[in-house]
């Protein structure tokens, strides 16, 4: 694996811009990338949950990644999510990510047929990571979606023996005890990327230094403020900013969660991400009016 600088700061889990008919609106990615630069975000995680990867074809995922790498122009790190229930598709995506010039790769566990053991999970990921041997590989742990609740610490320790480019884990779970364990495993040998935006302060308190999240796309300053306050040891301010994030997350939950609600907020801030693909329902005009009002009430647009 190449020598690389570990992740630090905010990594935005990107939305996939779409036209009203569901086709990918690739042209938006240039403007979106500039927004990422202007927001002070260090990287993007492309075609993950927020990017609706399960609703995209392999060819679309490749093209979306190519647009992001091109638009980034080295100004921020581009991590390709290459996960799939189909290991062979995942290998193809991983190889493509390396050829395209992605900075790193990540993969979620297969969730339909689930690995029964850590050994099986390692076996599943081994060729995927090996298809991009020079890039850091991150396990995307998200038991709420995959139903895979294997020990992450055990995966990291045993996985490192067989996956030389295993860099760490994108930890989207609220088991903070396990998360802390992973951060301190083998004297901090692994990167642990915090995954739940509404609890970022908890991950930072345990020693995480980077997070991957969907709400960073449209509220970067809230999270940059949390990071700054934590670095300065100003817990009261960090907590106050975290409460702002919680208010935002409460709003997106009301509108169907991070993908549906978040995409609608992106449209409201002027990055035309459009709607989601079914089975995520379209956003109605009246919902936009009500969302705008709810965001105003929590001071999203400023006082
Ligand atoms: C379950 C879920 O979608 N989690 C989000 C969070 O950013 C989430 O939207 C946020 O914490 C609000 O709950 C990210 O961890 C997902 C993510 O990184 C991705 O899109 O790959």
TrEMBL record:
Record key words, sorted: Carbohydrate metabolism, Cytoplasm, Lyase, Schiff base
Gene: Npl
Subcellular location: Cytoplasm
A GO MF label: N-acetylneuraminate lyase activity
Protein's name in the database: N-acetylneuraminate lyase
Family: Belongs to the DapA family.
One Gene Ontology cellular component: cytoplasm
Classification via Gene3D superfamilies: Aldolase class I (3.20.20.70)
Alphabetical list of InterPro entries matching this protein: Aldolase_TIM (IPR013785), DapA-like (IPR002220), Schiff_base-form_aldolases_CS (IPR020624)
Entry annotated with the keyword Cytoplasm: yes
PROSITE patterns (alphabetical): DHDPS_1 (PS00665)
Organism superkingdom: Bacteria
Keyword Oxidoreductase in annotation: no
Main subcellular location of this protein, as a coarse class: cytoplasm
Pfam families assigned to the protein according to its UniProt record, in alphabetical order: DHDPS
Signal peptide per UniProt: none
Active site: 140, 170
Organism: Proteiniphilum saccharofermentans
Residues that bind pyruvate: 50, 212
SMART domains registered for this protein in UniProt: DHDPS
EC number: 4.1.3.3
């Amino acid at each position: 694996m190449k020598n690389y600088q570990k992740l630090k700061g905010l990594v935005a889990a990107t939305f996939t811009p779409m036209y009203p008919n569901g086709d990918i609106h690739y042209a938006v990615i240039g403007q979106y990338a500039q927004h990422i630069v202007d927001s002070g975000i260090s990287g993007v995680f492309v075609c993950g949950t927020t990017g609706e990867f399960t609703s995209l074809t392999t060819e679309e995922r490749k093209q979306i990644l190519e647009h992001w790498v091109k638009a980034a122009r080295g100004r921020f790190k581009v991590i390709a999510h290459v996960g799939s229930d189909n290991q062979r598709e995942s290998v193809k995506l991983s190889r493509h990510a390396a050829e395209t010039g992605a900075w790193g790769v990540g993969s979620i566990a297969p969730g339909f047929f689930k690995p029964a053991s850590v050994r099986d999970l390692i076996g599943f990921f081994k060729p995927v990571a090996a298809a991009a041997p020079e890039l850091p590989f991150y396990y995307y742990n998200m038991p709420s979606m995959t139903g895979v609740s294997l020990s992450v610490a055990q995966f990291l320790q045993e996985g490192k023996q067989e996956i030389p480019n295993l860099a760490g884990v994108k930890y989207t779970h609220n088991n903070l005890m396990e998360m802390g364990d992973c951060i301190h495993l083998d004297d901090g040998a692994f990167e642990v990327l915090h995954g739940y935006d509404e609890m970022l302060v908890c991950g930072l308190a345990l020693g995480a230094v980077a997070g991957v999240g969907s709400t960073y796309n449209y509220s970067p300053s809230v999270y940059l403020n949390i990071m700054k306050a934590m670095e300065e040891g100003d817990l009261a301010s960090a907590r106050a900013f975290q409460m702002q994030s919680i208010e935002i997350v409460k709003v997106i939950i009301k509108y169907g969660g991070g993908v549906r609600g978040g995409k609608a907020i992106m449209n409201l801030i002027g990055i035309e991400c459009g709607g989601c693909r079914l089975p995520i329902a379209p956003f109605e005009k009246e919902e936009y009016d009500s969302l705008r009002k709810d965001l105003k009430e929590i001071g999203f647009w400023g006082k």
